[in-house]
Amino acid sequence: MKLSADFCGLSAASAVRICYKYAMQILQVTLWIYATALMRAFDCVRKNLVVSLAPLAYSLVLSAAAMIALPLGILGGFLLGLVSQACISSGLYLVKNMIDSGKTNFNDFARGFTVYLWDLITISFILWIPMRLAGMALATIPNGLLIYFCIQIALYILLNPVPELIYQSRTSGLELLGASYNFIVENWIEWLIPNILLAIGGYALLRLFESLLFGLPAFIQLFLYSFGLGLFLTYMMTFRGFLFAELHGTTRRSRIYRYNARSN
Q1: Per-residue confidence at 84, pLDDT binned at 50, 70, 90?
Q2: Radius of gyration (Cα) for the chain, nearest Å?
Q3: pLDDT tens digits for range 231-241
Q4: Which residue of 43, 129, 133, 221 is 20 to 30 Å from 211, comparing CA positions?
Q5: Which residues lie closer than 8 Å to 223 by C-beta, 6 or more apart?
Q6: pTM for the structure as a whole
């Protein structure tokens, strides 16, 4: 609204110059936010390298749960899903403590299994029912699988910041869906581009790392690859946390103002 008002009484050339200047300011501030989040994430991960072993610990927990759940049928499926959500809760709690205080420990790892468990179960249940119904309905029509896949992609994009909303805001349940949608609508460029680039770069590095492990004993390969994967996931989730903290509750104009104030 303010930017539109600035155009009143201006020539086309002046309006273009104002738009260009504003776009350059947004780009400069956004790149500064990215650099800040990347450096802060690197510093946190460097001080908490042991967290990179957490995904390996979660895989062992899930493997043990799968062995117990396998003979239990449907009940076993619910049990395995509960354990999976508990592992995600623990991971989010580790990231939260790294972002809030720059450090975390084993007590956070153990306590985290229940901290966000209810929120994760609630959001999973809310999504499971309509997706189940959509899958059943689309299975009977031509190109139904393609439509279902497109729905999944759309949900992945619109609900991408849900993990950060869970541990950085007080929203829960259905409010999470609305908050996530609003965040993506307001910050889709600033949020999605670095996450996509980081995911592609991380995948390429992991493939390269995997090739370097060729020829080593299988146990060592598994351990080193799990550590590398955990290191990447830890860094990516920490970066996302710092980036979300910078973007959430702000606008592009307010971020420009804050950047100028910090520079001064």
Answers
A1: very high
A2: 22
A3: 999 999 999 99
A4: 43
A5: 56
A6: 0.87
